[in-house]
Every structure is written in structure tokens, then in C-alpha cells.
Amino acid sequence: MGRIAIFTKTNLQDYRIIKLKEEIKNYNNISIIDIEKENIFPYNEKILNYDLYYFFVGSNFLSDIHFLAKYLEQNGKEVINKIHVKESIISKTLFYSILNKYVKIPEFVKIYSIDNIEYVINKIGFPMIIKHQFIHRGEFVHKIDNEKELYNFLEKYLLEKRINIKNLIFQKYIPYEKDIRIIFIGKPIGAMERINKNSFKANISQGGYGKQYKLDQEIIDIGYKIMEKCDLQIFAFDLLLKDNQYYLIDLHHIFQYEGFDKYLNKNITKEILNYLNEISNKS
């Protein structure tokens, strides 16, 4: 059985870290490596003492994981979610650019100067969604209903809070019938409808709750297309359903799953560890 390293930020008070520390006691061949304390560049060869590597919670582009992933692969090591080897910064913009030809995505625009805001208005119209390309969990998703709200938003976030407009995505609002989170761990693990009666944001972290949603073949096909085109093996993605059409709104290589465990009676941490062992045994 191969040795497996999971890179994470060990001091985070996070449900997923807590579950990982509990579950990993049952696996003698899997180790947790702190992505900040033990990530020293140029890399020490002791980092090569494992056969398979997975980047978990807290490991992001600020830790230069792209360089670490490339170093590991160049030394013959297996990296789960190989997108880390190819891309230095992973964002909604990257995923949209890769998948826009293959999966239905609500119409979107990115601009790099406020001078082009009229183009956004004419292209997207109202209501529109404004989201940050790096922020997830619904924490920077705003529904804008008219031009006055748009300019108030821009004044608040661009001028007062110094958000760079190049990090914003302007997207057509979909008045969805269902919001669905899907998890793939080498294969489809399940789907959960997210419901929030008090907000258009159905995220569990925004006060929503979940219930089982039946995986259909179209969702499964979308998941495998994401796996192929983005070179991801462990990931989650979010769909909106409107008039029998699925729209991809987000994709996560590191994702929240407390709601899955709670509402679908899953153990996603165990699913991840078992999958890592399965891949390690094949290597």
C-alpha cells in the first residue's frame, strides 16, 4: 500500500480538518502535512517520501502549490487534481474559460476597466449577479436589480473597499427552480438540493438546508466532462435548474461538505481517504 500525503492548513478550526484528523487514525499509510510549516522552497527531498499527494483545505495559490505540484510530478509522484500542476491560480474565471464550450453557463462578462461598465449593462442586463472570482460559499455574491444599485455597489466595493474590478464576474441572473451541489470523488458520490427560503443564495453556509437530489445522467455527464477538461478527480460543482436546463455556476477543487454529511448521511472525508488509497494501490 502506497504512502499518501495530504497537504492542509492544520491549525484551521474547520469541520473538514476536524473530520480528517478523526478519520485518518484508521489509515496507517496516510499522513497530514502542514502546507505552510513544511512547505519550504527550494524543496527538501524529504517531501518526496510519499507516493501520492492531495491538496486539501487551506492549500491555495498563496502557498505556491503550483510549483510544489510541478516539483512532485517532475519527480515521478502522483498528484490528485492535476490542475494544480498546470495552473498557478485557480479561479471561477479559469473554470469558466475551460468549460464554457462544453457546459451551459449563465452568460457572463469580465472587464478590466470601469470604463466598460456600460458594455456590461448592455450585454447582461438586469437583474445581474456580481461575484468575486476567488471567493466561495456565497460570501461575495450580489444580486443587482437596476442601474442605481449597480453604481452604488461599484462605489462601495471599488472605491471604499478597494476591490479590484478585474476580480469581479458580472453574470446573468437565473431565477432558478432548484440549486444543486454535486460531489465527485473519482466518480459521482451524490447530489444535494440546497434550499434557502430567506435568500436567493441557497448555500448551506448562508443559512440554507439540504435534501437528497437524484443524480440523473445529464448531471453525471457534466461531472465527467468537468473531470476530463479540468483534470480534476476530487471536486464539487453547483448547478441551477431552470426550465429543464442545468446551468453550471461554480466549481470547487476544495469544497465544503458538512451539509452533505448532515443532510445526506454521508462521510465525505472517509470517501476521500478510501479513494486516495484506491488510486495509490493502482500506482
Give descriptors for this structure.
single chain; 283 residues; alpha+beta; Rossmann fold; Dna Ligase, domain 1; D-amino Acid Aminotransferase, Chain A, domain 1; 3 domains; five-stranded antiparallel beta sheet; four-stranded parallel beta sheet; 9 helices; 31% helix; 25% strand; globular
In a few lines, what is going on in this structure?
The protein has helices at residues 15-23, 65-74, 83-86, 92-99, 117-124, 147-160, 217-230, 258-264, 268-282; strands spanning 4-8, 30-34, 52-55, 78-79, 108-109, 128-132, 141-144, 168-172, 178-185, 188-195, 209-213, 234-242, 245-252.
Helices, strands, pairings?
Layout: E1 4-8, H1 15-23, E2 30-34, E3 52-55, H2 65-74, E4 78-79, H3 83-86, H4 92-99, E5 108-109, H5 117-124, E6 128-132, E7 141-144, H6 147-160, E8 168-172, E9 178-185, E10 188-195, E11 209-213, H7 217-230, E12 234-242, E13 245-252, H8 258-264, H9 268-282
Parallel strand pairs: 1-2, 1-3, 3-4
Antiparallel strand pairs: 5-8, 6-7, 6-8, 9-10, 9-12, 10-11, 12-13
